[in-house]
Design brief:
Elements lengths: L32 E3 L19 H7 L6 H12 L3 E4 L7 H6 L4 E5 L2 H14 L1 H4 L2 E5 L11 E6 L12 H10 L1 E14 L1 H6 L2 E8 L6 E11 L4 E11 L4 E11 L3 H10 L2 E12 L2 E10 L2
Parallel strand pairs: 1-7, 2-3, 2-5, 3-4, 5-6
Antiparallel strand pairs: 6-12, 7-8, 8-9, 9-10, 11-12
Length: 295
């Protein structure tokens, strides 16, 4: 592996070595492995369901989006509730929103994630739990019944929706937004020349944990340009006092074409009111869009 100029990171421990991709698949291309800080992960977020043991990793993968809760809360204060959280997971946004007094409908396809969300809310108290409603559904088959002032597709969840299904999802959400309501979404934008030059990438990083477990990850990112898709495989090693657990996880995503997405939003009756870009590295950036209904 090589380390980018100016980046100093600890040496990967020996216990991590058996989890390298070569033990599961082919050896990564020479020079393709880059060790990176966990707060600058370049588009490695997972949009797949995770078990309880992978929560720390899932949160770390959202590092480039970690400040989005502040922006989304600020937007909610301007729109008011109810709030629709699409692809809510275990409540990373839904529960804090409820703590701030917003009624939230959390939608996710993973029943265990919604159970963790409900358990978290109950532990906080009945006032928070009473503001949360969960709805198990796949975003490609979403049918809503309520009306909302704000809808969220946060944590790059829009990349989990196949392009063929995305227009229908956007129309469904837009049709349930109240007048003056907003849809906010974020995604990782990849520069096309970078994808062409390096469609296979390998990253190594340590997951920040505070429970006594030492966790290292090698992530293999493979882009398929003809289908505009990507697959990320995470090879993890979690070392405690007595043993090391090795887990392999995968997530499949779709590469977002900004022009196509803008056209789909327009067709759904939404216009892009605000756009914020945050550079992650020299070929990747996080994009946050705020869209309003066409009144």
């Amino acid at each position: 592996m090589h380390t980018p100029s100016g980046l100093s990171l600890p040496v990967v421990p020996a216990a991590f070595a058996p989890v390298l991709p070569s033990r599961y698949d082919r050896e990564p291309a020479r020079g393709a492995g880059i060790r990176i800080k966990s707060d600058t992960l370049p588009g490695l977020e997972s949009v797949s369901a995770v078990d309880e043991g992978s929560v720390w990793l899932h949160d770390a993968l959202l590092g480039p989006h970690s400040a989005d809760i502040v922006r989304y809360l600020s937007l909610a204060r301007s729109t008011g509730g109810p709030v629709l959280d699409l692809g809510s997971g275990a409540g990373r946004l839904a529960v804090p929103f409820a703590r701030h007094g917003f009624a939230v409908e959390a939608v996710d396809r993973d029943a265990s994630a919604l159970e963790r969300l409900e358990g978290w809310a109950r532990r906080i108290g009945p006032q928070v739990a009473g503001l949360l409603v969960t709805h198990r559904a796949d975003l490609t088959e979403l049918r809503l019944e309520g009306s909302y002032r704000l809808a969220l597709l946060a944590g790059a969840m829009v990349t989990a929706v196949p392009p063929a299904h995305r227009p229908e999802l956007l129309r469904e959400v837009a049709s349930h937004l109240e007048t003056g309501g907003a849809l906010a979404l974020d995604y990782t934008a990849h520069q096309l020349p970078g994808l062409i030059a390096e469609p296979r990438r390998t990253w190594a990083f340590q997951v920040p944990r505070f429970d006594g477990i030492d966790e290292w990850v090698v992530a293999r990112q493979v882009f398929d340009l003809p289908s505009m898709s990507e697959r990320i495989t995470y090879y993890t090693a979690r070392t405690g006092k007595l043993s090391t657990e090795r887990v392999v996880l995968t997530t499949d995503k779709w590469i977002v074409d900004p022009e196509r997405l803008a056209a789909e939003l327009h067709s759904a009756g939404l216009h892009i009111e605000g756009r914020r870009r945050h550079r992650i590295d020299d070929r990747t950036e996080s994009v946050l869009l705020v869209c309003r209904t066409d009144d």
